[in-house]
Predict the structure.
Amino acid sequence: MVSYKELGLVNSKDLFRKAVDGGYAIPAFNFNNMEQLQAIVSACVATKSPVILQVSSGARNYANQTLLRYMAQGAVQYAKELGYEIPIVLHLDHGDSFELCKDCIESGFSSVMIDGSHLPYEENIALTKKVVEYAHQYDVTVEGELGVLAGIEDEVQAEHHTYTEPDEVVDFVSRTGVDSLAISIGTSHGAFKFTPEQCTRNEEGVLVPPPLRFDILEEIEKRIPGFPIVLHGSSSVPQQYVKIINENGGKLNDSIGIPEDQLRKAAKSAVCKINIDSDGRLAMTAAVREVLAKKPAEFDPRKYLGPAREELKKLYMHKTEEVLGSAGKA
Ligand code: G3H
Ligand code: 13P
Ligand code: ZN
């Protein structure tokens, strides 16, 4: 058993309390490799933002779970070397079983998500409660989920949103003992969150997706005042990256994300954790495609992964400063 405390990591409890009170959200950025981790840490140190490093099952399979854990441990030292100590959480994203959560807790994660959102309600409660009872023995925080996001959640594909039912949240939170709750109010995973038909055009001809269901968020906040709320699927799909990708041999049609003003508004409420993965994938891919298209003879990975890392850092700094409001809160 390795405790996250020995690794210099923190759980999310204090961070969420301060974020809810302060009207901002902590960024939860996914990582699968070294360049993503370097960009996340250097951006959050540069903007003095707390950060949640997220690892999915897919990331564990891709990069090896042991390596990822040591990388997160290294991230704490790296932040110190960069000259400013920021609180760093190592979080399991979309845990789908008790065993996976237990394994992560025993290998140094400070926070886990148990995603029972696709299960029948009582089964979601039973599974989430079991994870909470185990995690809390080690002071590890737990995120549960109620409601189903449309799109792809790991291997689970849902056609339509099932918005979180406000009448269920008090029962769910009190019976499971979770520390935070992910809800479904219109966000979804991936780079194709809306079809153009679902959007309207503004005066500049830009597609504007339907707004998030802030009415549901408000109802939830009334039922569990001040309780930490999490938004998944919160990439904005920056169109400048889509353009660069498409101009350099890529083919991303109709990729549409959550407008930043919607996320800014959410961050001011009890939403205290905002999950962003796809935007990082787009930034990296745009930079790599651009370098390789301009310099076809280049074959040193540092020459394209280096610029990708720089672009990612810019993106993450922008998120903490202009979108989530977490800059300066570390
Ligand atoms: O919500 C899912 C995250 O974006 C992680 O994606 O399962 O492909 O690693 P992944
Ligand atoms: P995006 O696909 O919108 O980046 O969402 C990521 C996420 O929710 C990770 O859990
Ligand atoms: Zn998610």
